[in-house]
Amino acid sequence: MHGLIMTRLLLISLFGALVLGSVANSAHADDDWRSFIETQPVSEVTITRSQSFAAEVISPNESQLASELNARILRIHTRPGAVVLQNQLLIELDCQDQQLHAESLIAQQRQNQALLDLAKLSLSRLKTLQNRDLATLSQLDELNTQIDQLEAQQGILSVEQAINARQIDRCRIKAPFDGAIVNHQVGEGQWVSVGTPLLNLVQTQDAEIRSQLPVSWLRSVSDIAEPSHLKAVFQALGIADQPVNLLRQAPNLEPNSRSVAVWFKADTNLPIGLSGQLTLTHPKRFLPTQVIVQRDGEMGVFAVQQDQLRFLVLAHVQEGRPHPLPDDWADDLLIVTQGQQRLSRAHAQ
């Protein structure tokens, strides 16, 4: 009996020692994580995500100016490569026929006006005679009709003069915008018909930067920020980096390349035809993949808050890809950057 009691006391002592040892080891493990981890504040850990795409500076207008008349080239006032201003005279056509027709219309209008003045004078006299019963109503009606016809003829001549003035104006080919002459397609003395190309003009002001963005990349961005919120920089050989702003995005996809066309604008005027790279940077900061770990089926990072280890769960993490920094995380929050693979959620409070 005494032996049985001693055996029970021995077992109780061993069990107590095991429990005390387990508690001590647990406390030691809780404190042991400090010895093998390294931390950095969020401001030093986060990264930005950028990607570059081929881009080109293009003109908003590249026009082929054509003749609107059948005429002979009288004079060419520019040469290829020349810079021209809006409304500057570029080419003159021979408009002698139109000018002679303008003089003819003026003479006809004067003649018609003289007849109209005479008819009105005759009407005035006839009304006086009618008061004395020396003129008939039919004579008055004839004169009124004649006056109406002459006034209508004056209106027709005015319209013909306006049409002819437009024809004369078309003899002077002017620049529709500020730009540069690309090439001439005719020479002085050459006969041209309506629609004959005369020259090519490219607008040099308000240049745009065009690029193609893959649909897959745009979709990855749209979950985080609108494309217009992206920081965009145009880089090309021989010029300083140019911050640019999104002008517009095509609503349709280009099926062959599975991409979307976008247009940007720089604050400074860039040379037309310049090729370079468009670098787009996400407006948000990201947690790098190496600090993100999975514990108990959840993705997150280990952090130290108020000298205590925490496991901060991240929602909708795509494994192997940087994750957007939550908006409510402070820049001085300490993130575990070394040793996180050895940590478990048991270490965290």
TrEMBL record:
A GO cellular component entry from the record: efflux pump complex
SUPFAM superfamilies: HlyD-like secretion proteins
The protein, known as: Efflux transporter, RND family, MFP subunit
One of the record's GO molecular function terms: efflux transmembrane transporter activity
Alphabetical list of InterPro entries matching this protein: MdtA-like_BSH, RND_pump_MFP
Residue spans crossing the bilayer: none
Signal peptide, first to last residue: 1-29
